[in-house]
Amino acid sequence: MEVTSPVRKPLVTGGKTVHDVTVDVCRRVEEKPTITWFLAVATSLGLLTIGLYAVAMTLWDGIGMWGLNKTVGWAWDITNFVWWVGIGHAGTLISAILLLFRQRWRMSINRAAEAMTIFAVICAAMFPVLHMGRPWLGAYWALPLPNTFGSLWVNFNSPLLWDVFAISTYFTVSLVFWYIGLIPDFATIRDRAKGIISRTVYGALAFGWNGSARTWERYEAVALILAGLATPLVLSVHTIVSFDFATSVIPGWHTTIFPPYFVAGAIFSGFAMVLTLMLITRKVYKLEDYITISHIEMMNIVIIVTGSIVGVAYITELFMAWYSGVEYEQYAFLNRATGPYWWAYWTMMTCNVISPQLFWIKKVRTSIVATFILSIVVNIGMWFERFVIIVTSLHRDYLPSSWAMFQPTVYDLGIYIFTFGLFFTFFFLFAKFFPVINMAEVKSILKATGEKQPAMRESATTTQSVEEMSPTTSKN
Amino acid sequence: MTAGNKFLVGVFDDDDVLLSAVAKVRESGIRIHECYTPFPVHGLGDALGYKRSKLPIAAFLFGMLGTSLALLMQFYMMGIDWPMIIGGKNFTSIPTFFPVTFELTVLLSALGMVGTFMIISDLRPYGKAKIFDLRATDDKYIMAIDLAKNSIDTTEIKQTLVNAGAVEVNEKHN
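Structure tokens for the assembled complex are given below, as produced in the milestone run.
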């Protein structure tokens, strides 16, 4: 019986055994943190502290501290919100959509990508919460709670309210999905732990997991259904985020192309952020055998596809503005490309449309340095995309008398820095105390796709039900 | 599991060996208490004679509950309790209620199913794991046999386990 695919490269290299996977991943949790790790955490905490000043000033003096004015009522806050939410999308795509498509290469990256999702959504939530001005009253504005403030209920016709439901559901379901996957790995750490503290802490986190066949059977059913639920969920989240704009009548926003275009853009920027983080983690933790060049290549291919969708969307927008014959729409796009914010538009075009096309060259998409640089370029480009959509559409609206420019203040910048500090603090803590690779899942594919695979198969006295274990690979 | 029972714990090196061993052990009339593996071994549930999990049904029912609650909430708040004129449109309309309905369906379905899973599998914070062999979460595949529930002679069960490919057979009180 042939299980190995002759065309696919092994997903785990270096002749790893099941025990090697445990050791390689648990070692990072068990060993003392390095000086580099302390420096990294200190830097992130430094950014967090600097940013906290901007947050405190915004809460104390109000959002007048930001660069907003009567024309541009939304700028960096919503730009950063959409940017962070978009970044989060890659984690769910990797863990849910690629699970449904039985893409096994997701298994060594899904844990970190899902962690990134959760941290990115937390960072995103900061912006609408702070934009409320008085967030301590926010629960009454955002949630259907009985109150005595006037309009009794929230407006269920508003896309901003849909956002509240979409983002909080997305956060909750992603967190649950991530944690369910972590339970077996926490049990592995618990069963290896020597110290009393680590045994207690990981024992509490492992929820009493013992790996019984019955629980695994249920676990797999749960994982599959959660993936099935998370797939339309992740598509709905950025669709609803795009409704914030698309349901309005502002030129440049009022288009039906927004939902698919935003979802593609979200996955595009999310994969770029996953690459940025994973290339560093892989190097620092020496995980080259688990996150191989072919993993990086796969992610780069997703970047080409989604980046090209984004490019086509930009061109479609231009075409539709011309074809619609609507003067305001036409001016909005002319103003984007040639108006006072032309530099933002062309940065977006270069970073998002032109630079990812370099990944068509195999040498570029298999090069770690090129991938790292381009992943950052893509995220800069995607930040400018949101800035361009939001600010250039708002700053010159229907009435020329109210045309204005937007200039960010140091507080706009400070809150953005705050979210970076928050994100990286969470990520470094995760990388130290949590298993960064899903051990159970990687172990389950070792036989089918590991390098030692033929030897391991021969040592088994039977190959019964190997066929059903790997329906995707056995067909090749 | 009742306290004080005596168990035979067969340790296997390979998931495929365990799978065939389960079939062999069950054929010889021995009742298996449970198997423990570091990752989901496909086909193990079938080999042990477990029925398919009914969790998908739980997920569906909780999802339906979410849909109903979301629609009821929105129709009550916007249509009955405090109707608001927004742009001269209808007080209530299915299309604008759809996003919130969808999100709450997904939320309740996921939380309800995961909650059910945790309860029926006895998983909770600080839950105490019933462990036969610590290596079951690392790289060993464990088969536990409750001696109190088997009338066959212990040495014979041991022999069957070794013949089926067990690398170690230990006794354990649990």
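Residues 142 and 257 of chain A are 27 Å apart (CA to CA). The radius of gyration of chain A is 24 Å. Further analysis is deferred to the final report.
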